[in-house]
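Reply to dn_fold:

You asked what the input looked like. This is it:
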Amino acid sequence: MADSIIVFHNSRCSKSRCCLEFLNDKGLDYSIVDYLKNNPTHEDLEAILDKLGIKPEALIRKGEDDFKANFKGKILSDSEWIDAMVKFPKLIERPIVIKGNKAVIGRPTERILEIL
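and this is what came back:
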């Protein structure tokens, strides 16, 4: 059985909506995690970062108001960056597409092909 596709999605984000459209156009089944309503835990984010193969700070949206107000110019440990994303989930880059042990940030949308 193939690994299911999971999309960490923000419906207000055009790139996130494009991701779903891309998957739909390919006829792929997926499940959606609305991470702003169902905030990931520290452990969830550690697992996602492991699948992405990136450091926590690389998953931070530095243009967000929460970043500018609370973190701009600060040096945090990996664990502290993860805690920041748990507390302020808008900081999490999106969309994140996960399949099995691999994940990509769907920007540009074609990056999703890397894990299919």
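The chain has one domain: 5-115.
Hope that clears it up.
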